[in-house]
Amino acid sequence: TTKVNLENRMGLIFLDDLPGTITDAILVTRKLSVRYLWVDAICIIQDDMDDWETQGSQMDTIFFNSWLTIAADCAEDSQSGFIRNRNTLSIVPCIHPSIFKNDKTRHDGNMVNGDVVCHFPASFPSSYLEDRGWIMQEELLSRRLLHYEEETVTWECPSAIPSERSPQMKSTPKNLDRYALQRIRFWYPRNVITALTRPLTVLQNYQLWHRLVKNYSNRHLSVPTDILPAIAGLANAWNLNSDTYIAGLWRADLIHSLAWHHVWYKPVTHIGCLDPALQHLPSFSSLCIGSNSVRTETDS
């Protein structure tokens, strides 16, 4: 949606005018008998900065309050769509009765054909969403996600992550906050944070935030200047001990938050923002260097 087509969009939107990924999302929404679908590219006026600032600041509540978030993991872009023609017989677990029983063997039993997943997945294989900056808020704040992968569909919520391949999997925390923390835990070395069955200390909460920012800083944003807005929703949801949030840092944790440095992959002649579009950001924040590897004190 742009200023040019806004008036027309307010009255009627033709499906043929929309890219494949959005039309697939509309199809899924209708199949689920859900009345409303929120798509940022449609619901936010793309060339109106005031509208972007207003709507962007509400992203956390949009994801958190949505009934379901559709994750188009297999969609390379907005045009490609995510609904695939698949052979479900090769995906859905099935039982072959007495497959080993014959005259030459004493084995007699059933063989189960299917995947067994017994742990919370750190990520979804071959997902085009894993390195996108705005997607982090969707991953951590959505109550329910429906993942459309290349060969299978997976449901993800705070109580279970069943998929067509492994429909019985139930290993996620029951609480939404702990569910989000469980995801973040897989971005950590094992010695950094204790098991999430125990309450996190104030220090561990800040350490989690450092790791979140590090993961986020390595993601891609099509508009580099979105780097602060795209993480602001997570900061609102995080609300560490009613602390003051400052451009990716927390006031009470500044002594640790400022102890970061860029992991250089090539020689540079100066220290500063690597992306000219980010030169307006405060230089004390690791986010000012854009999508680059950052190392913090808590990594050591």
TrEMBL record:
It holds the Pfam family HET. Residues 16-138 form the Heterokaryon incompatibility domain. It comes from Patellaria atrata CBS 101060. This is Heterokaryon incompatibility domain-containing protein. InterPro entries: HET. Coiled coil: none annotated.
